[in-house]
Specification:
Layout (H helix, E strand, L loop, with lengths): L2 E6 L5 E7 L9 H11 L8 H4 L4 E5 L1 E2 L2 E2 L4 E6 L7 H4 L25 H8 L5 H7 L4 H16 L4 E9 L2 E2 L5 H5 L1 H10 L7 H16 L6 E8 L15 H10 L4 E6 L35 E2 L2 E2 L4 E7 L10 E3 L6 E3 L10 H24 L4 H19 L6
Antiparallel strand pairs: 1-2, 2-6, 3-6, 4-5, 7-8, 7-9, 9-13, 10-13, 11-12, 14-15
Helix pairs in contact: 1-6, 4-5, 6-11, 10-11
The structure holds flavin mononucleotide (FMN).
Flavin mononucleotide binds next to helix 11.
Length: about 400
């Protein structure tokens, strides 16, 4: 089964990710990850850090001559900013500064960040020890691992894309079902927008919203939508709570820094509608199995994929670092002070949509590896082919004996 971990601090030497359970023989190169890595660094409203980092990915294990070997694949992303932080973030014990306090120490927690809770939980007086790991810089690794998972999913012809649906009070209902189906066109239109919203008029209003927030020293959140097309029936399971795919996807998306809500298909809107307007009828569909005229379920019933596109949206809270800071308290003295300001984005919903895609890729790759996994690409494709054949027989009228 595919599993993965990330490691590293925001201003440490670099970030590491390990993914295990990939079959041998999968084509992988740093180049194949570069598109997603570049997209994560984009978006109107990002801060200065993104200009400093190139986020070049290096494979340091598990890949030889552009192919996976079957062992754990390790990615390494250098933090170029480390050269300015070596004295502060280096691993070896250094000289104590004359002041008695570490340089760039943080004692005034930023509301909405992990600073305060992390300080109490781990006993860190210098809250830099918390924010360095809690920071969303870590998502660079998730995007690298997600791009690897995307390559694995391509074996099954699964396509994953995302758009930004809302920033602050500006929202958009699209794209149309037809545009989602035409994934390449959708992706190029999304990339053409400074905020990854493929509708130019809404995109311009979103940019304006961010510009106004910046002027006011404020920040913004929003909503993005991720879809996966080409999923077969039967990924995930209803037999145990932790195997339900909706639950696993929700956890993965909520684990992204600042994501506070996740919905599938009609989502929260379904709660206000009668059942007749929510559930997707079965209509006769011949040898290909019953047809579904709608997709209110978002592609999951009973925690199992139902063959319709996976539709999932995530809500991001506004960025917690405010250039007009909220009141906070110096943890050493109890004195009221403005919260610490660490270089920050004003809005990172476009970048979060790329991280959301990565998490969806990773969870779907896990689900495929549980169902049709194998030690080599050849074996995986054989398992997948056999399962597809069996399921095609079963969906025909009278196919389940
Ligand atoms: C891609 C991305 C970039 C982010 N950039 C920033 C940032 O520059 N400044 C900031 O204060 N928060 C940023 N955040 C959000 C914080 O990391 C997040 O609010 C914080 O970790 C607390 O989130 P939590 O309450 O969900 O744990 C970013 C989040 C993501 C997903």
């Amino acid at each position: 089964m595919i599993r993965f971990l990330t490691a590293g601090e925001s201003h440490g030497p670099g970030l590491t990710g390990v993914i295990e359970g990939l079959p041998a023989g999968l084509d992988l190169s740093a180049e194949s990850l570069s598109r997603d890595m570049a997209r994560r660094r984009m978006g109107y409203g990002r801060g200065g850090r993104m200009a400093l980092e190139t986020d070049a990915v290096r494979f340091v294990s598990g890949v030889r001559k552009g192919r996976t070997l079957g062992g754990p694949v390790t990615v390494w992303i250098e933090n170029r900013d480390f050269r300015n932080w070596e004295k502060i973030m280096g691993a070896e014990p250094g000289e104590e500064p004359q002041s008695g306090e570490p340089e760039r120490a943080v004692f005034v927690p930023r509301p909405g960040h992990a600073d305060f809770v992390g300080g109490i939980k781990f006993g860190h007086r210098d809250l830099r020890n918390v924010l360095e790991r809690a920071s969303a810089r870590e998502t660079a690794t998730r995007v690298a691992l997600g791009a690897i998972a995307r390559t694995y999913l391509a074996l099954f012809k699964v396509r994953i894309a995302s758009v930004v649906r809302a920033i602050g009070s500006v929202s958009w209902d699209g794209p149309s079902e037809e545009l989602w189906e035409d994934t390449e066109t959708l992706q190029s239109r999304t990339l053409a927008s400074e905020v990854f919203c493929p509708d130019p008029e809404t995109s311009a209003r979103m940019v304006e919203e961010i510009r106004n927030a910046k002027k006011a020293g404020d920040s913004l959140g929003g909503v993005f939508e991720v879809r996966a097309l080409g999923l077969p029936v039967g990924l995930g399971s209803y037999v145990q709570w932790d195997q339900r795919l909706d639950g696993r996807l929700a956890q993965a998306l909520c684990s992204i820094q600042a994501i506070k809500g996740v919905e599938f298909g009609l989502g929260f809107a379904a709660a206000a509608l009668p059942g007749s307007k929510v559930h997707d009828p079965f209509l006769p569909g011949g040898a290909g199995g019953p047809r579904r005229p709608s997709n209110g379920s978002g592609g999951l019933e009973g925690g199992v994929t139902n063959g319709l596109p996976l539709v999932v949206r995530a809500a991001m809270k506004p960025i917690a670092t405010l250039y007009t800071p909220l009141p906070s308290v110096d943890i050493r003295t109890g004195e009221t002070l403005p919260a610490t300001v660490e270089r920050s984005d004003i809005c990172a919903v476009p970048a979060a949509s790329v991280v959301g895609e990565a998490m969806v890729c990773l969870i779907l790759a896990q689900a495929f590896s549980e169902k049709v996994g194998g030690d080599s690409v050849e074996e995986v494709l054989a398992h997948f082919g056999e399962t597809e054949r069996l399921f095609r027989e079963r969906v025909r009228p009278g196919g389940i004996r």
